[in-house]
Amino acid sequence: MSVASPVDETAESTQPPQEPLPLRMRPDLVVRTEVYEGRTCYIIKDPIGLRYFRFDREEHRLLSMLDGKRTAEQIVERMNAEFRPQQFQLEDVARFAQQLLQLGLVVTIVPGVGDALYEAREQRKRQKRISTFTNFLYIKLPGFDPERLLSWMYPRVSFLFSTTGVALTLLLWLAAGLLVTLNYDQFRSRPELLQFHTFFNVHNVFWLWVAVGISKILHEFGHGLTCKHFKGECHDMGVLFLVFTPCLYCNVSDSWMTGSRWARIWISAAGMYVEITLASIAVFAWWLTEPGIIHNIAFAMMAVCSFNTLLVNGNPLLRYDGYYVMTDLLHVPNLMQKSSELVRHLIFRHALGIDIPAPAFLPERRRLLFVTYAVLAYLYRLVLVVVISWFLYRFLEPYKLGVISKILGAAGLGLTVVMPLWKTVSFVAHQDNVGEIVTGPKFIRTIVILAIAVAAFGWLPVPHRVESVASVEYRDAVPVYATVAGYLKDIRVEPGQRVEEGDVIAVLDNEPLEDEIAELEHRLRVADIRIQTAIALDREQDRQALEVSVRQTREMLETRKQQLSELTVKAPRSGIVIPATARPADAGIGTSELASTHPLKSENQNRYLHRNTLLCEIGPSSDFDAVLLIDQSEMEFVDDDQHVWLKLDAAPDVTLTGSTESVGVDRATTVPTPLSNRVGGELATVSEDGMTDTPVSPHYQVRVRLDDSDQLDVDGVLRHGNRGKARVDCGTWTCWQWLARTFNQVFQM
C-alpha cells in the first residue's frame, strides 16, 4: 500500500539532522501483519479516519522509529544497519516523514503545520465534492454507522454462512441453471425474452428501479454481514445513485484487518454471491408466475442481477467486487492505481520526453501485466460509457429526450478522454523547462503521430444507417372501420376468408340512431302540415321559416340514414380478410367493452363497438410489406431503392431484407397500432379518440417491399401486425461527418 506524495506546505516540519525529528507515530494506530508473495508487509488502520494503509517492512520500521526523540541521522543509521545492503539517505527520511504527516499517521508540535494540513484537507474535500458531481453515473452521499445494525442482524442470519447454508445456496444455483437449460426453448419463447429490448421502456422502468434497489441493498448487506462473520467491523453505509437509481453502499475496508487473504476474498465476493442467489430465486418466480407485478419484478431482478454481476460487479477491469477479488488472488493490492501511474510515468518519460522521478510504489516486475491491465481497464470504461449512453438513448429517444443521453454521453466521454488530456497538457505547461519539452524530438514525434492518427480516424468511412420501428402489414391492405358506433349483431366473415367487393363484413345495431331517424321523419310530417296551413292562411313569413326548418331537418335525416346504412359494414375491395391487430383491452375506449381484442371474434357478438373501431383489413394477396416510421430528422437521408434489414421481435434470430419503395412526403397522422407505446411499442403516441394513434413528434411513413425469398424462408414468422426494428442503408459517412452531426443534434445547431 502506497503513501501519497508530499505537500510543499509541510516542508518546514523536518528539522536539521542534529535535532530530534518532531514527529511521533500515533499510538492509536492498529497494525496487522500480512505476507504477500513471501514478503512481510504491515496493514495499518487509522481508527479515527477509518483509512487503511499497506506498508513494507522498511516503511513500517521507519514509522515505528518516529518517536519524537531520534534524529534523522540516527534513523538513517539504524535503517542502513537493519536493511543492508539497502542504503537510505536523509532526503528519503524527510520525504517519507512529510508523507506520513500529510496522511495523519504521525503527530507534531511544530507551529504552522496544523494550518497547512487543514488547508490540504479542505482542498481534498473540495476535490471530492467536485468529483461527486462530475461522476454523475455514480453519486455517493454521506451515510451512517451500521455497526449496531449488523451486529443485531448477524446472529439471525448466521446459518447462511454455515457449510449447510452455503451448500443449499449452491444447490439453488444448480437447480436454477438446470431449469433454464432443460427448458431453454420454452424460456426463449417467453414474451419478455422474445421482445427483450422492449421490456426496458418507460412502462417497466419502475420495476427495474425496484429490482436494482432491492438487489443493491441486499448486495451491500451481504458485504457487511460477511465482514462481521470474519470478525471485521463496518462503520460506513449510505445511499448512492448508480445510473440515477438509488442504491446502498457499505464500506468494508476493515477486511484488511482480518489477517486472512481468503477472508478478504469472501468479503469482496459476498455481493456477487447475493446477486446470483437473487437471480436464481427470480428464475423460479418468473417461471412459476403469471404476468403481473411479481412476474415483472422477477424478470427485472433476473436481468439486473445477471448482467450486473457479469458486466460490472464481477468484471476485474472495473473497481468493484471482481477487481478486489482478483487483486487478492494475484497478491497485487492497488493494482489499478499502480497500473495507471506506471502508464502515466511511461508516457511522460518516453512519449513526451519529461524526465520525472518514478513514484516509489511503481512495480519493478511484471510491468507488461500492469500496462496491459491499465489499457484494458481504460478501454472497458470507455466502452461502458458508450453502452450506458446508448441504452439511455434507446430508452429516451421515443419521447424525444434522446438529447439528454447525448449530453450525458458527451460528459462521460469528456471525463474519460478529455480530462486526462487536459491534465497532461496542464502538467506539461507548468514545467520549468516547458520550452525544451515541447521542442524536444520525443514530444514532436508524439504530437505528429497523434495528429496523423486523429486525421486518419476522422476520414475513416463508417456505414450510415437510419434506424426506425417497423411493423408487418399485408401488401396494399385496406382497413375496414366501424364508422358508426353500435352493438355488433352479426359477424359474416372469418379471418383468412376471401370476400368480394360489397360483401357484408358485419352488421351493427344502433337503436338510438333508429329512434332519431323516426323522430326526424315525424318532425318532417308535422312540418309539412304546418306549411300547408301557413299557405292556406296566407302567412308567407311563417311559410318561409318552416321551409328553412324542413330543409335543415331533411339534411339531418339524410345524414342519419347514411349512418344507418353504414351499420352494415361492407368490403371496400375484393381480397382476404385480415384480423385487426390485437390491442390490450384497456388501450382505449374503443375496446373497453370488448370480450376479445379482435373485434370480429364470435365472443364479441352483441358487444358495443365505438366509432372508428378497426374491424379488420382486406388485402389482395398473402404478400407482406414492412411499414417504417422514421423521425423527420432522419428523413433527408432516406430515398427509394435503399437496402433495408428487418428484425422482428417474434424472431430476433432472423434477419429479413427488402428495399424502400414508397417514401412518404407528408407527415404521418396515424401509427400502426403495434408500434404505439400504449401497447408496448417504442413510438410515443397520443390518442384523442382512444382508437387511432398519432405520433407525438413528426414522423414519416416509409413502405418496404420485403424480398420474396425471405418470406419463403421464414414461413410462419411473417404475420400481420408483427413489430420489430429496421435499418436503412444510407451509404457511408466519415467519422468527421458523424461527429459533426452528433454535435449539431446535441446543441441544436
UniProtKB/TrEMBL annotation:
InterPro entries: MBTPS2 (IPR001193), PqqD_sf (IPR041881)
Keyword rRNA-binding: no
Region (Disordered): 1-23
UniProt keyword annotation of Transmembrane helix present: yes
One BP term from GO: membrane protein intracellular domain proteolysis
Keywords attached to this entry: Membrane, Transmembrane, Transmembrane helix
Gene Ontology MF, one: metalloendopeptidase activity
GO cellular component, one term: cytoplasm
Transmembrane segments: 157-180, 200-218, 265-287, 293-312, 368-393, 399-422, 443-462
Name of protein: Multidrug resistance protein MdtN
Source lineage: Bacteria, Pseudomonadati, Planctomycetota, Planctomycetia, Planctomycetales
